[in-house]
């Protein structure tokens, strides 16, 4: 790697270092650097007298505290983030002149924020919801923001309806209930009366809406963008993030219990794995359509409620992103980061997707209200790694100290600088698309098919995935008080799948739809999680064990699980150490009071010689819940007899073997499989 490229890689970290402060071991001062002699008592007129106005330290401290909070995001308020780097696999010069997509030796710093859409900052993270997946690339040409979701389509086609959507899905205004949930009247009333939502709702009711981890979910740019090369040729493109660990989900009962057991489940998972060196990796993929092929499909490629099926338009993996450093301060970085789909670099441009066009207007407004003014780009986490020069001045929180008297263009006093940059020297120039037409409030006829791709999604699901979608509809609509709304939704989704709608109708107490059905018979295997990559790496394994275990054999199994990338955690009756029959000691990580099966991916049952009824009861409940959530379960020693006596021993995904090498191999395969729906 060249010195220049090494410099580009380190610039962002050095830049952030300028603003990092470690207060450990330091003497206390005010914000003006005045040393403070007392921080326990305010200045008073006598020991029992009133506090005096001249106590500047008290006033500074309290005033700062009173102003610590900024408005949370209207949507995507609940989020967590990490730093990392991106490298392209090979030059994309054929399609784009964007420099960060040219040289495989260049590491581009990135900052990624994951989020839920609906809930407030304090809401649980495992709710049924869309997840945000926003990436800021700090390129040598300026910041590029890919602001997407973990679902490739959206509820609406035109951004003018976004306020309506959010008003409908947020807690109902008369009682501010429910929090972080779509299972209520106003959301489903919106769905039934805005049928362009059909495709997105199918994704929302699927397992995609309850991901196992931020590390195990796909990301999508959602919109159709343009790539432009040096020759001025343009290509339509969609962006994908493919997790190296595969795409995996929770089950609904599990997601609800985690929300109570650990509302920070997803951020804790991301934080802990980065701290352990289990760096999340995502491959960047692109789908590309030539301009001349824009109208050759049975869907409009500019419609944000439509996918480009991967079997028709393949996804080319062009690079890899690695998240390798946690934030130092959540507020300064995660809360103050400002994403904007309009932050682009030469070689990446927009299309006439009406949802994208509206987002280009709204995001700047959002940052102005949240971050206090037009200088949000000067906050350290938002600063580009390359310098910026223009005639913009002043405003709230200005940090740049501009020199000289000139702040306008054109001028002679500063030699007409800063000077616009020609396109051939790297200046951004919009693609010269030919546009003509009458001003009209309407949308293309090609946007009016709302059900074909919703049916494609349904057809692409496996039997268990379809059952989960039916259960999700039944739960969500079962919480809707209005029978009229429930009926409208069932009648609407009869156009997606008549069997789906008929089953849901029975479950929620409305009449079966009188008509419906779909002519679509095609499917897209890429939409099913059944065919995703499956790996045991980084999976958390609960080890149920107590005193009297066989130390050497258990030690062998635990070491082998770690070698294969799993994370075993010891669970027993109390914290401290437990002792094996040979004197081996193991440190207990959790008790049954501090851990539940829902926060683990698999269970390894050793048991030991305990005859305590409480241990047997607690262990039994723990294991049975994991079993009911279709998770892998392994057992050796006394654990085998325990599973057999509870009639779990012959079930799929339950591994018992006397040969420890065989046990480790089979258990690893089961952990990688993730769920055993055939139980």
Protein described:
- There is one protein chain.
- The chain has 17 helices and 18 strands.
- It has 679 residues and is an alpha/beta fold.
- The chain has four domains: 3-66, Cytochrome C Oxidase, Chain J, CATH 4.10.91; 79-382, Catalase HpII,  Chain A, domain 1 (Beta Barrel), CATH 2.40.180; 451-530, Catalase, four-helical domain (Hemocyanin, N-terminal domain), CATH 1.20.1370; 534-673, Class I glutamine amidotransferase (GATase) domain (Rossmann fold).
- Strands 1, 2, 3, 4, 5, 6, 7, 8, 9 and 10 form a ten-stranded antiparallel β-sheet that branches. It has a six-stranded parallel β-sheet with strand order 15-12-11-16-17-18, with helices on both faces. Strands 13-14 form a two-stranded antiparallel sheet.
- It is globular, with a radius of gyration of 28 Å.
CATH fold node name of the largest domain? Catalase HpII,  Chain A, domain 1
Strand percent estimate: 15-25%
User: From the 3D coordinates, which CATH architecture of the largest domain would you assign?
Assistant: Beta Barrel
So, the CATH homologous superfamily of the largest domain?
A: Catalase core domain
Q: Which class of the largest domain in CATH terms?
A: Mainly Beta
By helix and strand content, what is the structural category? alpha/beta
- Average pLDDT: 94
User: Helical percent range?
Assistant: 25-40%
Q: What general outline do the C-alpha atoms trace?
A: globular
Largest sheet: 10 strands, antiparallel
Structure annotation, total helices: 17
* Unreliable residue runs: none
| Domain count | 4
Radius of gyration: 28 Å
Number of DSSP E strands: 18
Distance N to C terminus = 52 Å
Active site: 76, 149
Function: Decomposes hydrogen peroxide into water and oxygen; serves to protect cells from the toxic effects of hydrogen peroxide.
Cross-link (3'-histidyl-3-tyrosine (His-Tyr)): 340-363
Domain Catalase core: 29-417
């Amino acid at each position: 790697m060249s010195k220049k490229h090494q410099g580009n890689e380190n610039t962002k970290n050095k830049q952030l270092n300028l603003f990092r402060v470690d207060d450990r071991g330091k003497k206390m001062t005010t914000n003006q650097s005045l040393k403070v002699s007392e921080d326990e008592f305010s200045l008073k007129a006598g020991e029992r007298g009133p506090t005096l106005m001249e106590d500047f330290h008290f006033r500074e401290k309290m005033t700062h505290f009173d102003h610590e909070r900024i408005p949370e995001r209207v949507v995507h308020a609940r989020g967590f983030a990490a730093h990392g780097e991106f490298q392209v696999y090979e030059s994309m010069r054929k399609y784009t002149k964007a420099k960060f997509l040219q040289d495989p030796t260049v590491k581009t710093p990135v900052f990624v924020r994951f989020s839920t859409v609906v809930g407030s900052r304090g809401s649980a993270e495992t709710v049924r919801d869309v997840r945000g997946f926003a990436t800021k690339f700090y390129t040598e040409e300026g910041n590029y923001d890919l602001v997407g979701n973990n679902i490739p389509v959206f509820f609406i086609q035109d951004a003018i309806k976004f306020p309506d959507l959010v008003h409908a899905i947020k807690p109902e205004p008369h009682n501010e209930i429910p929090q972080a949930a779509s299972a209520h009247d106003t959301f489903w009333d919106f769905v039934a009366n805005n049928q362009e939502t059909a495709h997105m709702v199918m994704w929302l009711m699927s397992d995609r809406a309850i991901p196992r981890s931020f590390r195990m979910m796909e990301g999508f740019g959602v919109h159709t963008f343009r790539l432009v090369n040096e020759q001025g040729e343009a290509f339509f493109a969609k962006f994908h993030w493919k997790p190296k660990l595969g795409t995996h989900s929770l089950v609904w009962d599990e997601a609800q219990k985690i929300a109570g057991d650990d509302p920070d489940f997803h951020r804790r998972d991301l934080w802990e794995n980065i701290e352990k060196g289990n760096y999340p990796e995502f491959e960047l993929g692109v789908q590309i359509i030539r301009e001349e092929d824009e109208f050759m499909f049975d869907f409009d490629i500019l419609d944000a409620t439509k996918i480009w099926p991967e079997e028709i338009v393949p996804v080319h993996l062009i690079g890899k992103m690695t998240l390798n450093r946690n934030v130092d301060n959540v507020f300064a970085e995660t809360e103050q980061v400002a994403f904007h789909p309009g932050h682009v670099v030469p070689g990446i441009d927009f299309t006439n997707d009406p949802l994208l066009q509206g987002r280009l207007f709204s995001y700047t407004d959002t940052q102005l209200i949240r971050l206090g003014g037009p200088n949000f780009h000067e906050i350290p986490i938002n600063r580009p790694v390359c310098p910026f020069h223009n005639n913009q001045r002043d405003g709230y929180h200005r940090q740049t100290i501009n020199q000289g008297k000139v702040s306008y263009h054109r001028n002679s006093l500063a030699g007409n600088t800063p000077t616009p940059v020609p396109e051939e020297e790297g200046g951004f120039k919009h693609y010269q698309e030919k546009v003509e037409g009458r001003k009209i409030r309407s949308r293309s006829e090609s946007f009016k098919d709302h059900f074909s791709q919703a049916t494609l999604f349904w057809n692409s699901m496996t039997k268990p995935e379809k059952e989960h979608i039916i259960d999700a509809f039944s739960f969500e609509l079962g919480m809707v008080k209005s029978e009229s709304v429930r009926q409208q939704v069932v009648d609407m989704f009869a156009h997606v799948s008549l069997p789906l709608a008929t089953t849901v109708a029975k479950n929620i107490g409305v009449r079966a739809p009188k008509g419906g059905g779909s002519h679509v018979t095609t499917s897209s295997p890429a939409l099913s999680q059944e065919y995703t990559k499956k790996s045991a790496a980084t999976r958390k394994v609960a080890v149920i064990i107590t005193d009297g275990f066989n130390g050497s054999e258990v030690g062998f199994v635990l070491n082998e699980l770690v070698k294969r990338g799993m994370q075993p955690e010891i669970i027993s009756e109390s914290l401290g150490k437990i002792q094996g029959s040979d004197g081996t000691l193991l440190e207990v990580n959790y008790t049954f009071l501090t851990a539940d099966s829902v926060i683990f991916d698999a269970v390894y049952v050793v048991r030991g010689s305990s005859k305590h009824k409480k241990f047997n009861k607690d262990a039994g409940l723990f294991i049975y819940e994991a079993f009911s959530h279709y998770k892998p379960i392994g057992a050796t020693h006394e654990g085998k007899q325990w599973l057999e006596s509870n009639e779990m021993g012959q079930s799929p995904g339950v591994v018992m073997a006397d040969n420890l090498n065989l046990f480790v191999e089979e258990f690893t395969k089961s952990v990688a499989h993730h769920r055993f729906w055939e139980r």
